[in-house]
Specification:
2 copies of one chain form a homodimer. By secondary structure, the first copy, chain A, is mostly helical. The first copy, chain A, has a single domain, classed as Hypothetical protein af1432, CATH 1.10.3210.10. Chain A is 66% helix and 4% strand. In chain A, helix 3 crosses helix 7. The longest helix of chain A has 19 residues. Chains A and B meet through helix 1, helix 2 and helix 3 of A and helix 1, helix 2 and helix 3 of B.
Amino acid sequence: MTTVPDKERLPAQAGFVVEIDKLKRVLRRNTLMDGSRRENDAEHSWHLGMMAMVFGEYAPEGTDLDRVIAMLLVHDIVEIDAGDTFIYDTLAVELQEKAERAAADRIFGLLPAGQTATLRGLWEEFEERRTPEARFAKALDRLAPMLANHHNEGGSWVRHGVTARQVMEKVQIIREGSPALGDYAAELVRLSVARGHLTPA
Amino acid sequence: MTTVPDKERLPAQAGFVVEIDKLKRVLRRNTLMDGSRRENDAEHSWHLGMMAMVFGEYAPEGTDLDRVIAMLLVHDIVEIDAGDTFIYDTLAVELQEKAERAAADRIFGLLPAGQTATLRGLWEEFEERRTPEARFAKALDRLAPMLANHHNEGGSWVRHGVTARQVMEKVQIIREGSPALGDYAAELVRLSVARGHLTPA
């Protein structure tokens, strides 16, 4: 464990702030809701933080929403090194895990030790999905592209040949974080199928 | 005051979430830290939320950092209608205020009434800069482009002919939110002048 001397503490923190600017250049599979360009991880993370504020009432009682927001701001930072993985690509998801752990070591390791542990802990909590906070955060992360695709004539579902059956597996993850948002997501899927923007099976 | 019926509550909230996607298309004057393109308000807001987490120890004792983060996620949403204003353009800043109030009415008004008040309150608190939370949030908002310009050979300072004297006025705003970050910002200005990336007066 390295210890950052006091006088190097603020410059080390600033170095981390500069490093994570790169998250603005990591592109996701889905587009902005108007379809104009692909979304990047940084603006996606902001949107999820806002969703936690707006949809917070649908989290289980006692959920610490401030922790949910912090987790969502941090959750994609490892993709600076590891890149984005399309959630319907199973093999890539497995290979991704090792790359993300190495990325977490490097990027969170730029911070003073106590902050390394805090931010890495938020990321691990999100990935493990064992706490109500992590399950709600993951639900929002899964709901966001459904909202985008629903408002963009199927969006990345159409481009990548995703079916309603596959999307319904993600709806189950939403339901585990928030039953009300799960019901809402299922309704979005039903409407998208009815409009011909998603194939049934 | 309109009241959103219960069954329209979640769709109204989703409508707000869809509407604020537009913040990803509002461009700022400064670029990403690598200079590759202009930064947008949504990714900027994410970056500020992260800065609040990382630099939180430099806020005055007792500052509610969760409130700072919420304020930073919300603070630029009015620019969806009102656009971004360059902080060194005094006349534009004055004209901007009226447009931003109208934008706040429209955009936060998409939400159920209680949430309209909460989010609009966060925006107003940020603008008024009377609480320690708002002063610290504003300090981070001023520090971010200094970090970007410092790491990008002067960046928007060079392009818009901004002088060190003008930047030092913004350093004072940083100091009011956080003396330690104010000192750090002053040091960035001194270094940028020494490197020829910022003219002294």
